[in-house]
Amino acid sequence: MKVLIVFAHPDKRSFNYSLLQAAVKRLEENGNEVKVSDLYRMNWKPVVDEDDFLNHEKGTRLKITAASALAFKEKKLSADVLAEQEKLAWADTVIYQFPLWWMSLPAILKGWIDRVYASGYAYSVGPHDATHFGYRYGDGVMKGKKAFLITSVGSAVEHFSERGIGGPIEDVLFTLNHGMLFYPGFTVLPPIVTYRADSRRDEVYKNAEKAVLERIDNIDNVEPIHYRVQNAGDYVIPELTLKEGLEKPGDSHYDIHIKKD
Question: Where does this protein have coiled-coil stretches (predicted)?
């Protein structure tokens, strides 16, 4: 297995960095190849600007999608972006590891997505006709690859329960799992979430490490999240609304986009 870990935490003494080291060690012990994009140590530029597109005329109006698509087509994306795209092409499994800040990604990781998932590469690809609305949500450049999140939160698990004030963790992470991973085609495995990561309790770290190592050891047997593929017949095109009657009784909100037996 070829594994890319995209890692976002500023401190090498952190809970997350210790988990990263444990994961890399176990992956390599199991005979896997591993690459790590440690974004803070790379001093990753997190903002999209005209410097990303080497064929863009400086100072002229920047239309991000158009400029990104043209630069991707002409191989004129900046060198750092191209290097990360090469890592994604190399990997068959991608792990995104980060602390959950303000219910989302750290800015540096969001900036990695913004820049690396270029137009023509991860979005705005494929035909638009009676049966397809582009290659996305289950199709696309990442199809055939696995991905999942490893994240930590400072709050207790109850805060992210069905009645918790933060909302169910499945809902909080839906836009990342479905919109960031499934959109370009990844097969999405359930996330690994650690609660009370700031508690400094030894058992919290031990349980988190155990969960990560068990995932690595059993990754071929992990059941993915069965999101509905956009172009497989479940959605009305081009409206992209779920066809009536496909949801299960009691399904609502994000649940209707997951197939259940």
Answer: none
CB 52 within 8 A of CB 69: no
- Helix, strand or coil, per DSSP, at residue 229: coil
Backbone angles phi, psi at 236, to 5 degrees: -75, 130
Q: Which amino acid is at 113?
A: I
3-state secondary structure of 30: coil
Pair 210, 247: CB distance under 8 Å: no
> Do residues 252 and 259 make contact, with C-beta atoms less than 8 angstroms apart?
no
Q: Domain 2-224 falls in which CATH fold? A: Rossmann fold (3.40.50)
Q: How far apart are alpha carbons 82 and 78 in whole angstroms?
A: 6
Q: Where are the domains of the chain?
A: 2-224
Cα–Cα distance between 75 and 233 in angstroms, integer? 34
- Percent composition of the chain: helix, strand, coil (DSSP 3-state, to 5): 35, 15, 45
Indicate the DSSP class of residue 177.
I
**Going by C-beta distance under 8 Å and a sequence separation of 6 or more, which residues neighbour residue 118?**
68, 69, 71, 72, 77, 81, 85
Give the predicted TM-score (pTM) of the model. 0.95
pLDDT tens string, the chain, 261 residues long: the values are 999 999 999 999 999 999 999 999 999 999 999 999 999 999 999 999 999 999 999 999 999 999 999 999 999 999 999 999 999 999 999 999 999 999 999 999 999 999 999 999 999 999 999 999 999 999 999 999 999 999 999 989 999 998 999 999 999 999 999 999 999 999 999 999 999 988 778 889 999 999 999 999 999 999 999 999 999 999 999 999 999 999 888 787 899 999 987
